[in-house]
Design brief:
single chain, about 130 residues, 8-stranded antiparallel sheet
Length: about 130
C-alpha cells in the first residue's frame, strides 16, 4: 500500500567548490534541510552541479534523511537528478534501494519538490515493505 506524506521544508546550500572553464562551471554544495509536516526530519547531503554558458544546468545530489515519517522513526537516502534547458526542466528524486533503517526499513518511493512563492514543499509517495 502506498502513502503520500506532505509538508514544507527549509534548505541551506553551502558552496564547497567551483571550477570555471570555457562553456561550463562545475560546482559542489553541502545540503542541510529541515522537514515539517508528515515528515519531521533533518537531512544532510552533497550536490554536484554543472552550469552551461547557454543557461542549461544539471545537478545530482544524495542526501540522508533522519527523523519520523508519519510516526515511524528511521532514516533513508534520497537520490536527486535535475536537468534544466530552455525547453523546460525535469527533476527526479527517488528513495535509494535498501536505504531505510529502523521502522523505515524496506521503504521505497519518490519525492516531488514544489517551490511556490520561494517556499519549498514536498510530496513523498512511498511504501513500506512490511505494510
Amino acid at each position: 500500500m502506498t502513502h503520500i506524506a506532505k509538508g514544507e521544508f527549509d534548505v541551506t546550500m553551502t558552496p564547497q567548490a567551483q571550477d570555471k572553464a570555457q562553456g561550463s562551471t562545475l560546482g559542489r554544495m553541502a545540503l542541510a534541510k529541515i522537514f515539517r509536516g508528515d515528515l519531521q526530519a533533518t537531512s544532510k547531503g552533497e550536490m554536484l552541479t554543472a552550469m552551461m554558458a547557454n543557461g542549461s544546468a544539471v545537478y545530482a545530489a544524495i542526501e540522508r534523511v533522519d527523523g519520523t515519517l508519519e510516526g515511524k522513526r528511521g532514516s533513508f537516502v534520497l537520490v536527486h537528478q535535475g536537468i534544466a534547458t530552455g525547453a523546460g526542466q525535469t527533476l527526479t528524486v527517488t528513495i535509494a534501494p535498501d536505504s531505510g533503517s529502523d521502522e523505515l526499513q524496506g521503504i521505497t518511493g519518490e519525492m516531488k519538490i514544489i517551490i511556490t512563492d520561494d517556499k519549498h514543499f514536498y510530496e513523498l509517495d512511498y511504501a513500506l515493505a512490511n505494510q
